[in-house]
Amino acid sequence: MNGSVNSEQNDDIGSLFLTFKDNKKLDIRAQQRTYDGAYTRASIATLSFALLITKLFSKSFLPIGILYCVYGSIIYIIGMTRSNHMNAFLLGDDKLYYKTSGNTVLLMGLVSLISYIILLTLVLRID
């Protein structure tokens, strides 16, 4: 039953997309390339690297693989949160206003900094 609801919702979004003007279509495509594309690609690459580390190296590298797994998951969550906010804004929810990516960039920078500090300590502790 949920599958039919999702397909109906996707059909509504698809038909809604056809009614937009060209400028709005360009904005939606740019949003999809950025949030649905770049954040997803970055998280998949990070998760793949985590899998590579955990499978190819010794068990002493397992904490590093787990760190990259958590880091990739956080990237994906941040990207999907930002994407959902932009979808609601672009599809005309009047309660929302356009919010720049400044907070998202600061959050990603903070998460990256913390991850790299933890990575450095883990690498220095390997025997």
From TrEMBL:
Keywords carried by this UniProt record: Membrane, Transmembrane, Transmembrane helix
Highest taxon, organism lineage: Eukaryota
TM segment ranges: 61-81, 101-124
Protein known as: DUF202 domain-containing protein
